Amino acid sequence: MKKLQYERPVIQRLNTGVMNKFGTRTEYAPVTHIEGNAVKDLIEKYGSPLFVISQRVIEQTYRDANRAFKTRYPKVQFAWSYKTNYMNAVCNVFHKMGSWGEVVSGFEYQKALNNGVPGNKIIFNGPDKTEEELKSAIQNNSMIHIDHLDELYLIKELATEMKARPKVAIRVNMDTGIYPMWDRFGFNYENGQAWDAINKIMLTDKIDLVGLHCHIGTFMLAPSAYGVAAAKLSDLALGIKKKFKKNIQYIDMGGGFASKNTLKGSYLQGQDTSPSFDQFAEAITTAILNAGFVEDELPLLILETGRALIDEAGSLLGTVISNKRLSDGRRATIMDFGVNVMFTSFWYDHKISPAQEFSQYTEDAVLYGPLCMNIDVIRENVTLPPLKRNDHVVVHTVGAYNMTQWMQFIALRPAIVLIDLDEKAHVIRKRETLSSIESEEMMPKHLKEFKL
Ligand SMILES: *Cc1c(COP(=O)(O)O)cnc(C)c1O
Question: Domain span at residue 300?
Answer without folding.
Answer: 56-311
